Amino acid sequence: MQVTTLNFLHIACVTAGDIHVSSASRTPELKHAIRGRSAVYGVTSLDNHVYVTRNQENEIEVYDVNTMELQQRLQVPKLSCVSGIVACSHHNCLYVGDWDISSVHRVDLDKPSTIKNWSVAKIPEGLSVNSSHNVLVTCLVENKIQEYTTLGDLVNEVRLGVTNPRHAIQLSGGDYVVSQYTSPGVVSLVGPDGRVQCSFGQSKPQHRDKIQSVKYPVSLAVSKTGDIFVADRGNNRILGINSSLNNAQEFPIAAEVALQKPYALWLDEVHDRLYIGEMRGRNRLLVFCNVNSIFCQP
Q: Where are the beta strands (DSSP E) in 152-247?
C-alpha cells in the first residue's frame, strides 16, 4: 500500500478574465423526471439498467435504461446511510458507500444476494472506478482518496491538502479531478502525489463572477473528450468545465424544470444520457438526452 501525505498547496489557474463561455452545439432534452420519497444520493448505470440510491433507504432502485420503468429493488441489509453508488462493468458489480458506519458495500450483479462490505476512512462520500477496475473512495473528514480492489484490499491512499473533498475521478493519465464541498467551492486537478495542479472556482466569497462562483460542488462526471460535469448544489445548476479548468459554461436546463439542489450525477455516453439526482424539493431523478459533446472544448 502506498501512502502519500502533503501540506496544503493551491495553485489557481483560473481567474475571472480567463473564463470563456461558448454556446452549446446541441440542445439537451429532458426525457424523464422521476419523483421519490427521499433525496437521490447516487445514480449509476450499467448495460441496460440504471441504479439509484436514496437517503436513508437500504435498497437500490433498478430501472430500465430505455423506459425508466422501475424493475426491482435490490436490498442491501447492512446499509445504514447511503452516500453514493458506482457501477463496475469489469467486475459486474455495484459499490455503495455508507457514511454512517464508514464502509463500502459490494453488490454482485450476477448474484445480487451476495454482498461484501469493508470499512474505509471516515465519511466516505463520492465513489468512482478507475482504469485498473478498482474503486476510489473520497473520504470527506480525513481529506483523502482511498483505492480498493474489488475484494476490499487497500492498494493506495492519497492524502489531500484540500478540505472537505466530496468526489474524485481518476483520469487516464493518473491525475484526479476533485470537488471540494465548501462555499466558495473549488474543483481541482490533483496529481498522483496529492498536489493541486490547477483549480476552478473562487477563493473569496465576495467574488462576483457568476460562472466561477461555485457553491458546494458535489458529484462529478468526466466525458471521453475530457469535459467535466459538476453538480453545483448551492447554485442549483450543472456546470461544464474543460479539461484545462479554464473554460466553463452552464448545462442548458429550461427554467420550468426548476432544478433544486442537484446532488447525484452520472454521464452515460453509450446511451447519450445525463442523470441528475436532487436532494431537495421533489427529490427527482432527471434524465436528459442529447448530451454528448454538449460542451465545446476551446
A: 154-159, 165-170, 176-180, 186-190, 196-201, 217-222, 228-232, 237-241
Whether 297 is covered by a domain: the verdict is no
Q: Per the structure, how many domains does the chain have? A: 1
Contacts of 208 (CB under 8 A, 6+ apart): none
Residues 17 and 186: their CA atoms lie apart, in Å, by 17
Domain of residue 277 covers: 2-289
Question: What whole-number distance in Å separates Cα of residue 12 and Cα of residue 65?
Answer: 39
| Structural domain contains residue 296 | no
Find, among 294, 291, 265, 289, the residue nearest to 278 by Cα.
265
Q: Would you say 179 and 151 are in contact if contact means Cβ atoms under 8 Å apart?
A: no
Residue whose C-alpha is closest to residue 126's, from 134, 118, 136 = 136
Please give the DSSP secondary-structure letter assigned to residue 205. Answer: T
Structure confidence at residue 78 (pLDDT): 87
Number of Cβ atoms within 10 Å of the Cβ of 115 = 19
Sequence-ordered list of residues with C-beta below 8 angstroms from that of 205, at least 6 positions apart, any chain: 183, 184
- The distance of Cα 6 from the centroid of its chain, to the nearest Å, equals 24
Q: Is the peptide bond before 184 cis (omega within 30 degrees of 0)?
A: yes
SS3 content of the chain, % helix, strand, coil (to 5): 5, 45, 50
> Residue 218's domain is classified under what CATH number?
2.120.10.30
- What does residue 166 show for φ and ψ, rounded to 5 degrees? -105, -40
pLDDT < 70: residue spans in the chain = 1-26, 202-212, 296-298
- What is the spatial distance between Cα 17 and Cα 117, in angstroms, rounded to a whole number? 47
